[in-house]
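Researcher: We plan to redesign the surface later, but first we want a full-length starting point. Tokens attached.
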């Protein structure tokens, strides 16, 4: 089985917080950060498998601290665990106060991407090999998260079965 180091998928993105990016508290709008998260995570997944990928689920996004307009926001992302065609991707959001240099972890997220071939069929991805302490820790705890995802997916399917698609005006 082909393997690839977690570091081979690692990528970074840094942005300023512009006036058009904020909410009514004058801190970064959560939807904007979620778009950054999905964007960078999809790049990490693509770098890992070098195939077409789709977001299967955003498993968790934890907003730990508000992001101020004086902060820069830096996202780091890499593949932490692989199944057959699925990849768990971690995103770490680090803010830096541009006036005093203080850094903090403002958010963390886990997403699952699935690799597809040109016929939109799922394809096997290389197995990820963690190296650093952080990569190893996230890799070791991934089986538990995969089990939670599997259970939640089953529940979501059951839930979708009884949701209606009719609009109120119809
Ligand atoms: C994701 C998708 C390709 C899975 O297709 P599927 O026919 O259900 O495929 P399978 O059941 O064979 O699952 C394939 C893999 O995806 C994983 N998977 C599927 N749905 C998942 C979910 N909701 N969460 C986590 N993993 C999921 C499975 O565990 C499996 O992993 P493995 O190959 O590592 O064992 C399909 O559901 C899809 O196309 N969804 C829409 C994706 C999309 O459009 N994303 C953008 C949203 S705007």
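Model: Full-length starting sequence:
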């Amino acid at each position: 089985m082909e393997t690839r180091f977690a570091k081979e998928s690692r990528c970074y993105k840094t942005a300023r917080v512009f006036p058009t990016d904020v909410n009514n508290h004058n801190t970064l709008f959560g939807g904007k950060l979620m778009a950054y998260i999905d964007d960078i995570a999809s790049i990490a997944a693509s770098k890992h498998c070098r195939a077409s990928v789709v977001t299967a689920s955003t498993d968790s996004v934890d907003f730990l601290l508000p992001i101020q307009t004086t902060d820069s926001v830096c996202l780091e992302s890499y593949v932490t665990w692989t199944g057959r065609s699925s990849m768990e991707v971690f995103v770490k959001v680090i803010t830096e106060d541009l006036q005093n240099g203080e850094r903090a972890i403002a958010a963390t997220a886990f997403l699952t991407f699935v690799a597809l071939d040109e016929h939109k069929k799922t394809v096997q991805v290389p197995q990820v090999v963690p190296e650093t302490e952080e990569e190893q820790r996230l890799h070791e705890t991934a089986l538990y998260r995969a089990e939670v995802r599997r259970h939640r997916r089953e529940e979501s399917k059951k839930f979708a079965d009884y949701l209606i698609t009719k609009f109120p005006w119809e």
